[in-house]
Write a structure and sequence with these properties.
475 residues, alpha/beta, TIM Barrel, Trefoil (Acidic Fibroblast Growth Factor, subunit A), 10 helices, disordered N terminus
């Protein structure tokens, strides 16, 4: 929905129902692994004809779309720490020749380890809160599910804001979607709350939707009588009920181009109160959130602006305080300083390869470039140990499989309580060693290499400068 038209926005509340166990990393029953933004059409996603995401063109080939998408998605990852993107679909886009090009954006997101939420939007000409044409609707979803049903990072939201249906009628239609596509795992289906994705309990309490995620939309203009942070926290908490483990906010947003300070308590400004209240309660309930919009040209709610032409695109942040509150909603501490961690022997820094946000992504050394994948938060884990959390992914520095062997691989993985994710910052002269709590071994650049891309693993602690590190705060 378009914020310029006071679109009924939404907060989708998703649940991660199944987590892979990795070493000593525990399962986590929350949707916080969804840290997302919407990538939208400049005209809003209610369009007649094909959808054209900001920065793309109907004349783009598949390869050109991939090249542009790579730059935009990399911006979401580096500037915000996002790992999820929500994209619109409609019949005109999926049934026509442009679909091949459009899939370049989806495929690129998947290749970068990002989750993708595909959501059906009505056309502008027949926008009334119901599906435009049921035959076309089912044909569209058949095409999408046939292509992406087996892609674990792709999630399906049958309809955005089904506001004209009664609760019973909407649930019957959503249940029919599940019946039509039984091969799609329930945990990858996002069922919109009734109305403007607001009434969640009616979905959560219906056994036909057991195992699915539930989508919530929330905007300041949904309830202008609320003017305090506490009132917005109460509104979100009440709507979620007992289903926090399944709820994902897929739309929420506020003005980001007019200089408001969202980091200062603001019960005198209804938008500031809204953003701070929703961010705080989403974090408390451990809800994933997907901001509207990450990119939508000329939308005053946008958090990123596209720069450049052709495939030479980049993103800049419109509001640093808005970004901080989004990261607050994700459970990431924007106010806490991040560090570059530099190897003494090479002068190169600890880096998550290719700015990946995926579990098991490799840790290597590379020359400093200022990317979020080279910035690390030292989070107190107790007992003199720290978790090292990547700014880009929100994931932790981890010894794979909790191995105690020399040469064991060091990766990033979803943060947990495992001691294979806890590191001692131990002084050795004017430098420091990073010692894994579970093994007592040191973070080590393999073979004392000075090359870009050299592997970082654990090894028995010694006196080598390839095991000695310094840290410095970064912007």
């Amino acid at each position: 929905m378009g914020t310029t038209c006071l679109r009924a926005a939404g907060a989708v509340l998703l649940t991660v129902l199944a987590w892979s166990l990795h070493g000593t990393t525990p399962a986590h029953a929350a949707t916080t692994d969804f840290r997302g933004v919407n990538w939208a059409d400049e005209r809003d996603n209610f369009v007649d004809g094909v959808l054209v995401l900001g920065g793309l063109s109907t004349s783009d080939s598949y390869a050109t779309t991939q090249a542009k998408a790579d730059r935009i998605l990399s911006g979401f990852q580096s500037n915000l720490g996002a790992n999820t993107v929500r994209l619109p679909v409609n019949y005109a886009t999926v049934s026509g020749s442009y679909w091949n090009s459009y899939t370049g954006a989806i495929d690129t997101a998947v290749s970068k380890g990002m989750k993708v939420i595909l959501s059906y939007w009505e056309s502008a000409g027949s926008r009334n809160g119901t599906v435009d044409d049921l035959n076309q609707f089912w044909a569209m979803w058949q095409t999408i599910v046939a292509k992406y049903g087996g892609t674990s990072l792709v999630h399906f939201e049958p309809m955005n804001e089904p506001y004209a249906y009664s609760d019973a009628d909407w649930k019957n239609l959503a249940a029919q979607w599940l019946s039509n596509y039984p091969s799609v795992p329930r945990g990858r289906v996002v069922i919109s709350g009734a109305g403007y994705n607001q009434r969640l309990i009616t979905i959560g309490s219906d056994s036909r939707f057991d195992g699915t995620l539930i989508s919530r939309h929330i905007y300041q203009f949904f309830d202008t009588a609320r003017t305090t942070e506490d009132s917005w926290r109460e509104a979100l908490r009440t709507s979620v009920g007992g289903y926090a483990g399944r709820v994902l906010i897929t739309e929420w947003g506020a003005p980001m181009t007019d200089g408001r300070d969202y980091n200062a308590p603001g019960d005198g400004d209804s938008f500031v109160a809204f953003v701070r209240g929703v961010a705080a309660e989403a974090r408390a309930l451990q809800l994933g959130t997907v901001y509207w919009p990450g990119v939508r040209p000329n939308d005053w709610y946008r958090l990123q602006t596209i720069n450049g032409t052709g495939t030479a695109l980049s993103l800049t942040t419109t509001s640093a305080s808005g970004r901080d509150q989004l990261r607050q909603s994700w459970g990431l501490d924007a106010a806490t300083p991040y560090h570059r961690v530099t190897a003494r022997h090479s002068g190169k820094v600890m880096d998550v390869v290719s700015a990946s946000t995926a579990n098991n992504a490799e840790i290597k050394q590379y020359a400093w470039n200022g990317g979020g994948n080279q910035k690390w938060l030292f989070q107190d884990a107790g007992g003199g140990y720290y978790r090292l959390i990547s700014q880009n992914s929100g994931k932790c520095l981890d010894v794979a499989g909790a191995s105690t062997a020399d040469g064991a691989n060091v990766i990033q993985y979803t943060c947990g309580t495992g001691t294979n994710q806890q590191w001692q910052w131990a002084a050795t002269g004017s430098y420091f060693q990073l010692r894994a709590r579970h093994s007592g071994k040191c973070l080590d650049v393999a073979g004392a290499s000075t090359a870009d891309g050299a592997d970082i693993h654990q090894y028995t602690c010694g006196t080598g400068t390839n095991q000695q590190w310094s840290r410095a705060t970064t912007p």
